[in-house]
Amino acid sequence: MESLFLRPVKPKTITDQIFEQLRDSIFQGRLSPGEKLPPERELAAAFGVSRPSVKAAISRLVHMGLVFQRQGQGTFVRTLESRYMDNPLREALESEEMSLFDLLEVRLGLEVHTVGLAAARATNDDILGLEKSLEDMLSRKEAGRAGAGDDAAFHMAVAYASKNLAQIYLMKNFYDLLFYAISKSRFYLYEAGNLDAIGTHHGKILDAVRQRDPEAARSRMAEHIRYVMDFCKRNNL
User: Fold this and answer.
1) How many C-beta atoms lie closer than 10 Å to residue 2's C-beta?
2) Alpha carbon of 140 to those of 135, 147, 175, 217: distances in Å?
3) Which among 50, 75, 172, 208 could bridge 217 via Cys, Cβ 3.0 to 4.6 Å?
4) C-alpha closest to that of 57 among 18, 11, 12, 27
């Protein structure tokens, strides 16, 4: 009998598997913005595959805008700033047609749903990644730095933990704007001495995900983003 919900299984090629491992390493922050990938011959040896398969996988990453290649120098993970410069919404942000508050409203809808999925689906490795992002964020705060990159990495790690590829892609494309928003809001929050509260918010989000409690996770994320929204509204940002 024909099934209404089953589809034929398509076997993954070697290139697909290499691409997915490298892509996920970028999504999870194991390959950092600006970091150089190992040479193709080293990647081929590590994966146990041929160089053409590695080359094809890297070409897909270039096409996605996750990495770029410099002639004679190698392949690099694209920086947040370079992705921001290519973002079609950049001009609207820089011309102030779009406010920081507008961006935070989008974050509210997108990330509250995402963190609920993450709380239901996160693996132990995902939780370790969230813990590492929070640890880095707090250590930079203690060193007197705003830590916007670590903050954005935490939110991207939440997206990855959702295990919804469409959600991850949405967040990755929004990540450039998210980094802009976090950089700007954290600067003002830092100047106002509010980063302790932001660190506490992230800790509560992590606890809810760790406890596999989607409702609490959504509530904590909404609380966090609304806190920043209220700050921006009070200060006309």
Assistant:
1) 4
2) 9, 6, 20, 24
3) 208
4) 18
Question: What percent of the chain is modeled with pLDDT above 90?
Answer: 40
pLDDT computed for residue 192 by the predictor: 53
Contact by Cβ (8 Å): 228, 201: no
d(CA 23, CA 76): 13
Instruction: Give exposure, 39-74, as e/b (b: 16+ Cβ within 10 Å).
Output: ebeebbeebebeeebbebbbebbeeeebbeeeeeee
Token pair for residue 17?
Answer: 């598997």
Nearest 10 degrees: Cα torsion 222, 150, 194, 98: -60
Is the predicted pLDDT of residue 1 greater than 50, yes or no? no
Kindly indicate the confidence band of residue 94, based on its pLDDT and cuts at 50, 70 and 90: low
- On the question of pLDDT at 184 being above 90, the answer is no
Across the range 170-189, mean pLDDT stands at: 67
The mean pLDDT value for 62-73 works out to: 88
Domains in the chain and their CATH numbers? 14-78 (1.10.10.10), 85-234 (1.20.120.530)
- Judge residue 196's burial from the number of C-beta atoms within 10 Å of its C-beta, 0-12 exposed, 13-18 middle, 19 or more buried: exposed
Structure tokens at 150: 């670590």
User: What's the farthest any 2 CA atoms get from each other in the chain?
Assistant: 66
Q: What is the pLDDT of residue 30?
A: 79
